[in-house]
Amino acid sequence: QVQFVESGGGLVQPGGSLRLSCAGSGSTFSSDAMSWVRQAPEKGLEWVSSINKGGSLTTYMDSVKGRFTISRDNAKNTMYLQMNNLKPEDTAVYYCNMGGSWGQGTQVTVSS
């Protein structure tokens, strides 16, 4: 089973940018689609974006379209989420996911 470690979160002002990374271990990293999922304080899990195993197809939740870009580099066993024009409502713990495998999450806080 593949394991993931997210990084790249932090505190940023509204309108700022962050790039999240999800590093995977194991030879099965490129075998399936992957997703970013977030959880805001006192709220449930919310799907953000997905990418197919080859990286050619991407989908996004409406509120992040045009601001976030998902990508993956299977040679590096890493998935990314470039987040631009961040808003306070993007504040959450961001998790990467493939099937039943999850990372520990990285905190993103958007505040002035």
Describe this structure in words.
- The protein is mainly β.
- The chain is built from no helices and 11 strands.
- The strands form 2 sheets. Strands 2, 4, 5, 6, 9, 10 and 11 form a 7-stranded mixed sheet that branches. It has a 4-stranded antiparallel sheet with strand order 1-3-8-7, with no helix packed on it.
- The model has no long low-confidence stretch (mean pLDDT 95).
Concise structural overview:
It is built from no helices and 11 strands. It has 112 residues and is mainly β.
Which descriptor suits the 3D outline? Answer: globular
Distance between the termini: 40 Å
- Biggest sheet features: 7 strands, mixed
Rg from Cα: 13 Å
Strand segment count: 11
DSSP helix count? Answer: 0
Query: Runs with pLDDT <50, length 5+?
Result: none
Give the % helix: under 10%
Category from helices, strands and their pairing:
mainly beta
How are helices and strands ordered from N to C? EEEEEEEEEEE
The overall average pLDDT, rounded, is: 95
Beta-strand percentage?
A: over 45%
